[in-house]
């Protein structure tokens, strides 16, 4: 599309894997809000590592990009935020909720 300038209809974009999902205009605003909410709930640090990794490997050869990507994903998985998110996926407890302190001066 970028190089040809060819317009792609939504169903074709979905078939080609250019988009994850296609929604009707009547539900677009609600679906956009829902997606934005999911993004806002994610760890900024984990997202930053992923974005930095993506942009850092773009100009590398395929082999170098794959190696770099493996290291980036490993770094990301070792982050405390990622571990909390994985735990949430498994046990369904919000890792970012405030945890009650036993002592009022404890941080």
List keywords for this structure.
single chain; 107 residues; mainly alpha; Lyase 2-enoyl-coa Hydratase, Chain  A, domain 2; 2 domains; 5 helices; 63% helix
Write a concise synopsis of the structure shown.
This protein is mainly alpha-helical. The protein has five helices and no strands. It has two domains: 1-41, no CATH class; 43-107, Orthogonal Bundle (Lyase 2-enoyl-coa Hydratase, Chain  A, domain 2).
Topology summary:
Layout (H helix, E strand, L loop, with lengths): L9 H7 L8 H17 L2 H14 L4 H17 L1 H12 L16
Helix pairs in contact: 3-4
- Order of helical and strand elements: HHHHH
Low-confidence stretches: none
| CATH fold-level topology of the largest domain | Lyase 2-enoyl-coa Hydratase, Chain  A, domain 2
Which overall shape is indicated by the principal axes computed on the Cα atoms? Answer: flat
Give the helix tally.
5
Q: What is the tally of beta strands?
A: 0
Q: What composes the largest sheet? A: none
Radius of gyration: 19 Å
What is the distance, rounded to the nearest whole angstrom, between the alpha carbons of the first and last residues? 52 Å
- What CATH architecture label of the largest domain applies? Orthogonal Bundle
Helix content: 55-70%
């Amino acid at each position: 599309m970028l190089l040809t300038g060819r317009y792609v209809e939504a169903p074709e974009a979905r078939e080609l894997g250019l988009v994850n999902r296609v929604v009707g205009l009547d539900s677009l605003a609600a679906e956009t809000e829902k997606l934005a909410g999911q993004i806002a709930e994610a760890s900024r640090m984990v997202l930053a590592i992923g974005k930095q990794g993506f942009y850092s490997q773009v100009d590398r050869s395929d082999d170098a990009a794959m190696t770099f990507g493996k290291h980036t994903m490993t770094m990301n998985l070792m982050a405390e935020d990622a571990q909390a998110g994985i735990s949430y996926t498994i046990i369904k407890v919000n890792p970012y909720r405030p945890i009650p302190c036993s002592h009022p001066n404890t941080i």
